[in-house]
C-alpha cells in the first residue's frame, strides 16, 4: 500500500497547488445547479493558463474532487474529522472571491470624461435603489446565521466571460441576477434581473439598468458588502 501511495497526491497537496495567478475567469458556487435533496455542494473554478475545479459535496458519502483541465485527478471520501481539508476549501473559496474583487478596484478610480450634472442626479437615485435592494438581500442572509437548516443557493463570477470576453462581475443570490460590466470606456454598466418565482435566467427584461460614470466606487462598495456577506454565510462549517 505504501508503495502505491508514492504515486498519488493527497488532497491537501492539490489544495496547496491551487493558485489564482494568471487566471482570467473565476467561479464560486453554493448549491448551484445541484439536487438539494441529495446534500450540499460548494465549488471553486478557475480558468487561465490551466483550468482547475474543486468540488466539495456533502451527501451520503461526503467527498472532495479535483478536476484539472477537465480531467478528474483526485477524488477522496471525506472522513468525519476533515477539519484541515475543510479549512483549505474555505480558504480557496474566500481567496477566489477576494481576488475577483481586488482586480477591479483600480477600474473604479479611473475617471470618465463627459459626465454631466444629470448623470450625477441619475446615479444618486440609482444608488438608493441598489442600497434598498441589496439591503433586502443582506437581511435575508442574516437568517442563515440563526437557522442552520437553511441552504444557500448562489454563484459568483468574475473576470472575462469565456464566450463573450466581456469583463464582468456577476452575482446570483436569491431572486436577483446582478451584472457589473466594466466597459472599455471606463463606465460601469449595471444590469439586474429579478427572477422572482421563476428559475435563474428566466426573466429576459432587466428590472434595473444604469451606466455609472461619476460614483463608481460607491456602487462597488455595495456589491462588495453583499458578496462578503454571501461568502461568510456560505462557509463550510
What would you say this structure looks like, in words?
With 237 residues, the protein is α+β, with helices and mostly antiparallel strands. Helices cover 35% and strands 30% of the residues. Strands 5-4-3-2-1-6-7-8-9-10 form a ten-stranded antiparallel sheet, with helices on one face. A hairpin with a 5-residue loop joins strand 8 and strand 9. Helix 2 runs parallel beside helix 3 and helix 5 (117-146) runs parallel beside helix 6. The longest helix has 30 residues, at 117-146. It is globular, with a radius of gyration of 20 Å.
Shape: globular
Structure summary, number of beta strands: 10
Our Rg estimate from Cα atoms comes to 20 Å
What are the segments in which pLDDT stays under 50 over at least 5 consecutive residues? 1-8
Element string (H = helix, E = strand)? HHEEEEEHHHEEEEEH
Q: Could you give the order of strands across the largest sheet?
A: 5-4-3-2-1-6-7-8-9-10
The SS-based structural class is alpha+beta
The rounded distance between the terminal residues' Cα atoms is 32 Å
Number of helices: 6
Secondary-structure map:
Layout: H1 2-5, H2 11-17, E1 23-30, E2 40-48, E3 51-58, E4 63-68, E5 71-77, H3 83-102, H4 105-108, H5 117-146, E6 154-160, E7 167-173, E8 176-182, E9 188-194, E10 208-212, H6 216-233
Antiparallel strand pairs: 1-2, 1-6, 2-3, 3-4, 4-5, 6-7, 7-8, 8-9, 9-10
